[in-house]
Amino acid sequence: MTDKIIIFDTTLRDGEQSPGYSMNTAEKLHFAAQLEKLRVDVIEAGFPSSSAGDFEAVQMIAHKVSNVEVAALARTSKEDIDAAWGAIKEAAHPRIHIFIATSDIHLQHKLRMRRDQVISKAVEAITYARRFTDNIEFSAEDGSRSDRDFLCTIFEAAISAGATTVNLPDTVGYAIPSEFAELVAYVKEHTPNIGKAILSVHCHNDLGLATANTLASINAGARQVEVTVNGIGERAGNTSLEEIVMALHTRRGYLDFFTDINTKEIYPSSHLLVMITGIPVQPNKAIVGANAFSHEAGIHQDGVLKHRTTYEIMEPTTIGLETNRLVLGKHSGRHAFKDRLRGLGYDLPDQEIDKIFQRFKELADKRKEIVDDDIEALVAEEILRVPDIFKLRYLNVVGGTDAIPTATVQLEIDGKVEQDAGFGVGPIDATFNTIAEITGTHSKLLHFSIDSLTSGTDAQGIVTVQLEEDGIKTLGKGNDPDIIVASAKAYINGLNRLEHLRRNSHSEKTA
Ligand code: KIV
Ligand code: ZN
Are 491 and 465 in contact (CB under 8 A)? Predict the structure, then answer.
């Protein structure tokens, strides 16, 4: 019989905690709604005890989604479990996810505990969490480097205490597929009560083997996989959702498993994550990279034209990559615009629609055709971002072969208008220097990139900056047909996010 593989998505927890990927509550909520459309089985929404901001976001996601389980992460302490339950108790299907490390390396150097103490901690925590729900997942952190018999013992104890899912993470991405599959099979064979729980895996990609390890473990008996969209996550990331789902889908004759994922929502989910975080996926990324379905070599193009299957193993439409995107223009009315927003998954209040419709009209005055990517970029910029402390009111730059690059900038800061002018080696440098002067900030610019959303010289420029101040790093994004304006917006967005992060520090996160 074909077995179902449970898709546990941790983009909003393991993914979000990696540098540069932090999202605000509105962004997380929007992404969670997309995950529900994608039909993942479980959304790991966050780690509520790590910060007030995380608690609030998990709580709001728990209210928002109804057809999917919402998991919250907790260490083995009562405080963590209380926070996790506090955040998800209103969810239609809540799950508490408790973890503790099990490898000798972690026991000796991090926890300074003996194995029997770790078992007691895990059992106590699961027993405590059972007061709230019987949907409990237990994770043995650094499982792949743990003693295999100890793993079986702690899983047996966890299941006896009430865990319904036991998760075996390759926390440091150290495993090799054949070895990991053997470990999964061993755990399945030597944990006496494993039949009462779902065996899950959670792989990191440090050696580029996360997908291979996850697939190997499915063949060996794992029935839940922990994944992220675009493979984002700690260090080199987690197993990528789209790779696992499409491997199972494309090779279903060979791999006798299925998922409930709506594959047509794979590309929209990947794209939304890029829009929200401003971090693009590498062009050659499997399934969702820009080149994943493009054929450059003449022989390949010729083959595909003769018969698609010569060089294409998947159809782009299967992952929701539509080529005929709807185009709007300056004559499109508010009604058509609202319809398109709905079609893209944005059911927004009238006030917010008015705000982006205004920006849409401004853009349509400058450009003939506005496509879905443009609209999504406007939504990401106008609606999903953190409330701005600094707002751009006016920008005028001087540049060119014989000019001294100069920028005149007017900002609104807490309702007051401030202005200044400054110089730089180029107009963008002059703009950034002047903004830093007005805001009194001293951030370091770690990264700056300009991309375009569509082709043509009238395309919207999309600028991403990475800033660091006082040890806090963040991204800023801005888009505009004028790349200097887009750069100023990205820089100001970065400063706003730095300020926001300073207020809701994520530094307590430890998982
Ligand atoms: O990588 C890991 O071990 C984790 C656990 C919390 C599941 O993220
Ligand atoms: Zn992890």
Answer: yes
Per-residue pLDDT reduced to its tens digit, 177-194: 999 999 999 999 999 999
Closest residue (by CA) to atom 6 of ligand 1? Answer: 511
SS3 76: coil
Each residue of 460-484: pLDDT tens digit?
A: 888 989 899 888 878 888 888 899 9
Which is the closest atom of ligand 1 to the Cα of 238?
Answer: 1
DSSP characters for 325-356?
---B-TT--HHHHHHHHHHTT----HHHHHHH
Ligand 1 neighbours, Cβ below 6 Å, are: 14, 99, 139, 141, 167, 169, 171, 202, 204, 511
Angle of helix 372-382 relative to helix 334-343, nearest 10 degrees, comes to: 90
Cα 406 from Cα 192, distance rounded (Å)? 73
Average pLDDT of the residues of the chain:
91
β-pair type (472-480, 461-469): antiparallel
pLDDT of residue 52: 92
Q: 101 by DSSP, 3-state: which?
A: strand
Measured CA to CA, the distance from residue 166 to residue 191 in angstroms comes to 11
pTM attached to this predicted model: 0.84
From residue 130, alpha-carbon distances to 99, 135, 192 in Å are: 15, 8, 21
CB 10, CB 238: distance < 8 Å = yes
**Ligand 1 atom 1, closest CA:** 171
pLDDT of residue 508: 38
